[in-house]
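Notes to self, Tc1-like transposase DDE domain-containing protein:
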Amino acid sequence: MVNQAPSTRKDVSSSKKAEVIQQLYHFLVNGKLVRGAFKRTAEMLDIERRSVAYIWDTFCTPGTLKSNKCAKVGPNPKYSPDDIRNLVRDVPMDQRSTTRDISTTTGLSRGTLSRHLKIGTFVRRSTRIKPLLTDANKAERTAFCGLAAAGEAGLPETVEFEILWDVVHLNEKCRPRFDHDRGVLFDGKVGMWPVVESVPAVRNSRNRPADYIINKVIPAIKASFPSANKRVVLQHDNATPHASITDAELEAVSTDGWKFVLRRQPPNSPDLNALDLGFFASIQSLQYKSMSRTVYDVIRSTLAAFEELSFEKLESVFFTFQSVMRLILEHDGGNHYVLPHLKKAAVRRAGLLMQNVSCPVSLLL
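result:
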């Protein structure tokens, strides 16, 4: 079968048709067009000769330039914007935190909800904190992302970000992958431990959170964390409990071939932490579905949401983390950017999900 070349003809607007008729009137002699009128008009108005002839014949026969093409075609929409708005308004608050939840509750497809969200039938209510950055903050953010991009080269003009397999984001999240030594899938969740205890009121200690990391987090990492060289980077967000950990304490637990080091993320940079980027929002959307009346109810629902969260979702957060580092380099350390939509779920279903996000070498110069 011979493939036909695509048509290059363009639809002529009504104003253009009127211009064609006005131009042809200059070539009328005794009520007839002179020879070559169509060709000269087509050259003057930059359209095809046969289009000029068709416009003239159509004008002379019914005396109108109105297009005979149909307007909107197809079936009428099942739901009007008012119907969509009312359906979304009737969804309980604990079931409208994500479009998936709204789709399940209302019976509307996610595509329908996305289209009406785009045209403004209903609006999204969310917040994303973007701290004000000093020049020193921007320089430190750029240096942080530049070091992370010093990985293996992809194309000659690009490099890949570090694979982040030996980095643990406190609180206790790391990139999922397959553990070849144990023959199981490591889901990236080291653990979650609440710091609330039901005891008679006593004076609190600033050393209690640090004690959790030394006596709970690090033993859990040793028990489940797949690492080829047993060197683990603990990245923290400058919070006081995390900053209170000393190198001497880490040296004391760096036994059996393990080596633990601290890495501080740049100040005013919640976008350089996998938890603030997406993990908290993911478990929050699950935790909000359960009713919590006391702090212990919140703890139980949060722990349940932590267990329910899939490794695919956590893996997607780390891809977003790498994409954000590239955007920070593109914006000279600033945070005035829109979070990228990488269509990770669709690419994963197609089996084409990349291992790392690449970065142009020009951004590192």
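- The longest helix spans residues 311-330.
- The chain has a mean pLDDT of 79.
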